[in-house]
Amino acid sequence: MKHLITLCTAVLISSLSYGQWQVSASSGYALGSATMKLGERINTSETENSYGSYGEGTNVQLRGTYFFDDSFGVDLSVGYLQGTDQDVSIIDLPSTEVNAVARARAFGASASVVYKFTNNIYGRFGALLKLGGKTEGVIYQKSVFSEAEAEAFGVPVGSYSETNYKEDFHGHFPLGFVGALGYKYDLDSHFSIFAEAEYYGISLKRKDSEISAFNTDVKLPDGTVAVSGLYTLDNLPEGINRTTTYVDNLSNSNTDTSKELSQKVPYSSFGLNIGITYKFERLNKE
């Protein structure tokens, strides 16, 4: 046992002695991968499924890497994803218009193993974790009043309600996979630039959501506001909950509309990153 401990200590000291630190910064764009149905697009002639992944969008990353030798290392990175709008509900009917989209605003981290195949080509793979953020829903809805509704509000036929609101969805902390294959080019002994293809495989199970902004106005046929702030965040219409909790099971007799069945939403993506790396001096040159 003592010999084993001595050997492991010697290997660790040797690796640290000849190891090298480097830091990188990069930015890139990713397309959705392993997409799932997110909603529907409806008009007078057809209904179409909308597929996508909330992992699509622009990202920035900061990474620290430690190489034990000329080939093998470990990597820790943090990043932010500015997701693109994904269609959740698009309705275009004579009496109803809806434009509901959702996009990711997420912080994540990954821990990976890095291997240099050559001095220029490398690969890395490891675990991916979402640290925080939200899936932000932005909803616009226009509903044309029936004759009875218009009469009740004392407005002309053709008047309508116009609602705008935002809802922030939060999820349980997931664990996923990250893998990348890259090419780097040394500018000098310290700086290099790189380009890499990167894959994220991860899904997020919803935990809760909260309406963060809400406003409904009544408008005349020409768009003039007849009633401002009919409904607000502090005066939500009946049946709309400010907060919703997502659970794995619900009783068939449940009447609490603030609880809904949970679902998994995709964050998987495949993208391209471009960045720059700074290499520190070796701790102990040969």
UniProtKB/TrEMBL annotation:
Q: Which residues form the Outer membrane protein beta-barrel domain?
A: 9-213
- What stretches pass through the bilayer? none
Q: Where is the signal peptide?
A: 1-19
Sorted keywords for this record are: Signal
This chain belongs to the protein called Outer membrane protein beta-barrel domain-containing protein
Record InterPro entries: Beta-barrel_OMP (IPR027385), OMP/PagP_B-barrel (IPR011250)
Spell out the Pfam families in the cross-references. OMP_b-brl
